[in-house]
Amino acid sequence: MRATKRAASQARRRRRQSRGLLTGMTPALLAVAVLACLVVAFLPGSGSGNGHAVAAAQAGSSPGSGSPSVSGRARATTATAHGSRSDRPTPSASAPTPAAQPGSGVAPLAGRIKPSLTYHGVATAYAAADGNGSCLFGPSNDLMIAAMNYTDYETAKACGAYVLVRAANGAALTVRIVNECPLPCAPGQLDLSRQAFARLAALSVGRLPITWTLVSPASPGTISLRYKTGSSRWWCGIQVIGHRNPVALLEVRTASGWQSLPRTDYDYFLSADGTGCGGAIRITDIYGQRLVVDGIALRPDVAQPTGLQFTRH
User: Which of 192, 215, 238 is at the close of a domain?
Assistant: First the structure.
């Protein structure tokens, strides 16, 4: 019996020790667990608040957040806006290159004959009669005129140009181009009316070395427009007369905008299908200056004054 009681007493003692050990370990384990949670909570980037901020920035949060993704989108938007500005000029087939300011020396639409350049050649003389020629301006009261060589005539681009001619002997005069000197007239050559040649040297000289330069005269009057013989609403030719500076373009107004007409070697601009015939006309000189003329009647063979003139250069 005593042995049985002793065994039971020892068993009760072991159970009490086990309960005490467990009771003593619980606070320690709890303390360790709490400390581990605090450490994890304060690790960089582990908080749930940072996670929401990143998501907001990626979704396009306000610029005040300072997120790199937001500022990157702003730069892209700015670049797109600069690349698609609607106020930038758009080149078109009928529009000339950007126009020069009136009075400037820049001639972006000039052909072979450009201002401020000196051309070298020879002067010859021809019987100009009433002053009419390949440009079809008609008779001229002023016979200080000339025929431009075939190359520099350039399909009538030289028609109506004023050039200052100088001879080696110091004599000089200004002539208007009204005609074409066909081959074998060489580049730089001017075939002057006999009246003009005589101002520089005796006609017996025959061939006179010269230099010449494009000029913009002081008082040539105002521009007139003329419709060619046979012009109608279905076909027309339009000519510019009395212009101070060489004409580069002639356009007619259409429902879709201005349309440039092709130029002939007899200095008329043709509308083969009647487009713009009898309507508004826009004339552009080699400097880019534009004059718009409205109200010119479709009356063939009549030089109709416009009251307009290009600025002097």
Answer: 215
